[in-house]
Design goal:
Layout lengths: L1 H15 L2 E3 L2 E3 L14 E5 L3 H12 L5 H14 L20 E6 L5 E7 L5 H11 L4 E3 H10 L10 H11 L32 E6 L5 E7 L20 E4 L3 E7 L1 H6 L2 H10 L4 H15 L1 H4 L4 E7 L4 E7 L3 E6 L3 E5 L2 E3 L1
Parallel strand pairs: 5-6, 12-15
Antiparallel strand pairs: 1-2, 3-7, 3-13, 4-5, 4-8, 7-8, 9-10, 10-11, 11-12, 13-14
The structure holds N-hydroxy-L-asparagine (SD4).
């Protein structure tokens, strides 16, 4: 907490002196007055983002902080056993163990992350505690679990009977196929996820802007189904699965994490917005970078980026058709189909 406060004071001092970035004088982002236009907004990945946004909106609409909103929002799919790719009920690794990756980032560049965390439903809240209560940014595996337990989190079996059954069926072939959600059929009953794919993962990444114009983001997942035990994806890696720069905007990703890590995708999207790209154009360029880096693989997998800028503009782009994202603000509550390179 002290570290956070110290950082806040430093930020305030810097801001009130006005910071010159890229030729633009930026106003104090921490304590500036309420903008004339209501830019409050929350956006998140996939159709299930809609319910998560609604929870986040309860906080934003009452004047709450974006950080609190994104944490509350992503806790919805984390607790939902029918969601096979986030939190409780997530599909396990090849050893039958559900391991969670999550990270969170606020408007002061504070961030926290947990990797390969087992037995705790709300990985995002553990990540927030890492951010607020420790001098570190990342805790992994058993250390993350010990930290969570020491801070009052309850140990729980995250493997539901449905996910266990899917895993046992998968064991018969044991083929790791990270082909994903090309047609967004994950939650259609007739195409019940697994066993064996191909619709084997979807992360929730959420970014929001609050009434003071501040940004925060959260990202949480059970990662790629049937991954090698200990594998960590992009989702808990600051800059890969999530990045927030309160001067510019925020971005998050979903899809095959290895390809996102290779290009440090969310940070790239934010930097492209800093150079003047719209959120949609920035996401598109990041997706194109994935193709440039790994053309053979890019045709077979899904990756999607979602971004928000300081004006409250948002946009997305994906490799494949089928990526959706949810938007909630004072004017709309929608699910959009992202544009994509391959259709
Ligand atoms: C991962 N990016 O573990 C995550 C999985 C995911 O949509 O996003 N699925 O690589």
């Amino acid at each position: 907490m002290i570290a956070t406060r110290r950082k806040f004071l430093q930020t305030s001092v810097l801001s009130s002196a006005a910071v010159l970035t890229g030729g633009q004088v930026l106003a104090d982002t921490a304590s500036r007055p309420q903008p004339a236009v209501d830019n409050r907004i929350v956006i998140s990945t996939w159709d299930f983002g809609k319910a998560a946004n609604a929870e986040a909106w309860k906080i934003l609409s009452k004047g709450g902080r974006a950080l609190d909103a994104v944490e509350a929002g992503v806790k919805v799919p984390e607790a939902d056993p029918s969601n096979r790719s986030v939190g409780y009920g997530g599909l396990p690794d090849r050893d039958g163990r559900v391991t969670l990756d999550a990270c969170i980032m606020d408007e002061f560049y504070n961030c926290g992350s947990v990797m390969a965390l087992e037995h705790i439903v709300h990985a995002i809240s553990v990540a927030r505690l890492v951010m607020e209560k420790t001098p570190h940014i990342v805790l992994a595996g058993d250390g993350a679990l010990q930290f969570a337990l020491a801070n009052g989190f309850e140990k729980q079996n995250l493997l539901t009977p449905e996910s266990e059954a899917a895993w046992r069926k998968w064991l018969k072939t044991s083929r790791y196929e990270p082909v994903m959600n090309v047609e967004n059929k994950l939650f259609r009953k007739e195409n019940d996820p697994m066993p064996g794919g191909p619709y084997n993962h979807d992360t929730i990444g959420m970014v929001a802007m609050d009434g003071t114009g501040n940004l925060s983001g959260a990202c949480t997942t059970s990662g790629m189904a049937y991954k090698i035990h200990g594998r960590v994806g992009d989702s808990p890696i600051i800059g890969a699965g999530l990045y927030v720069d309160n001067e510019v905007g925020a971005a998050t990703s979903t899809g095959v994490g290895e390809e996102v890590i290779r290009i440090v995708g969310s940070h790239l999207v934010v930097e492209l917005m800093r150079q003047g790209r719209s959120p949609e154009a920035a996401c598109r360029e990041a997706v194109e970078r994935i193709i440039q880096r790994n053309p053979g693989q890019a045709k077979k997998i899904q990756v999607g980026f979602l971004a928000l800028n300081k004006k409250g503009e948002y946009g997305a782009w994906a490799l494949q058709k089928g990526f959706t994202y949810a938007v909630k603000n004072n004017r709309e509550e929608n699910i959009f189909a992202s544009k994509s390179i391959y259709t």
